[in-house]
Amino acid sequence: MTTPTSCPALVRGVRALLRAGRLDDARALAAVSDETDPSLCLVLVELDIAEAYLTGESPDPGSVERRRPVIEAHGTQADRWDLELLSARLEFIAQIFLPGTSLASMEGRDRRRVDDLRARVESLQRTSPDRRREGWADFYLGVVLDNLYGERHRAPVHYDRCLAAAEDTADDVLRYEALRHLGDHRNEDRHASAAREMWEDSAASAARAGAVSSTLSQLILLAELARDRGEVDGARLLAAEVARWSGSIGATRLRDQALALAGPAHG
Predict the structure, then answer these.
(1) For 158-172, how does the pLDDT look when each residue is reduced to its tens digit (9 = 90+)?
(2) Staple partner for 261: which of 21, 75, 239, 240, CB 3.0–4.6 Å?
(3) In the 8-state DSSP scheme, what is residue 139?
(4) Could you list the residue range(s) of the whole structural domain that residue 49 is in?
């Protein structure tokens, strides 16, 4: 058996293109690499997840299993943990885009599948090989409680933990996610100023990480907050720009959200 040759710089390049929303370019770059490289296999699953999330379509359920043999044969313990987290992410996205369901509600969902997802994420949280990964497991435990079970009062403690992990490990993408969701809870509790500060910080964190769609997603929330403060014209202008930018990178789900906020004149 040939031992795969890893090229960390190439994998970093694929991930950078992924975060920039240039998914076709990311796949083209990945195609010239060794498909038996565990790191490449993991980033290919990330690509499948990103594509599903940007378009609002159900993710490819076979994405993880196609790469599992390489991870099992050549990967480290951390690689195997990463693959299991990606598997949980795929199931989470499948659940939030499940037809006939709404966020923060179990109505229309198979409770056994959701309970299994929660148990998997709790296991990942307990077995995480390092602080950064522990933070990611805490984040997904929070969003499962928040967006699937509707147990919103139980989620913020997990976001607080993942924010602490993000700051300890300088993970700007994790910081973006934690602040985005904590800001949502502050806004729901009518602390609009605190929500705005968190969302602005979240957008800046996403931008530092080169995560274009994440930055645009935060700008939509800031536009909604401006609208709720009575700054309707400014909110619509910002939303129209976000719609244009989102459409240019194929982020159709974000584009449609922004167009709904911008109003019919920008449709």
Answers:
(1) 999 999 999 999 999
(2) 239
(3) H
(4) 1-79
Indicate the SS3 state at residue 249.
Answer: coil
DSSP string, 166-230: HHHHT-HHHHHHHHHHHHHHHHHTT-HHHHHHHHHHHHHHHHHTT-HHHHHHHHHHHHHHHHHTT
Residue 3 lies in a domain: yes
Tokens 């240039």 belong to 22
Identify whether 232 is part of a domain.
no
Domain count for the chain: 1
Q: What is the pTM of this model?
A: 0.95
| Cα three-residue angle 102-65-82, rounded to 5 degrees | 75
First to last CA, the chain: 56
> What angle in degrees, to the nearest 10, is found between the helix axes of 232-248 and 252-262?
160
User: Does residue 72 belong to any structural domain of this protein?
Assistant: yes
Structural domain includes residue 249: no
**Residue 147 scores a pLDDT above 80:** yes
Residues 99 and 150 sit within 8 Å (Cβ to Cβ): no
d(CA 17, CA 212): 10
Residue 238, amino acid: L
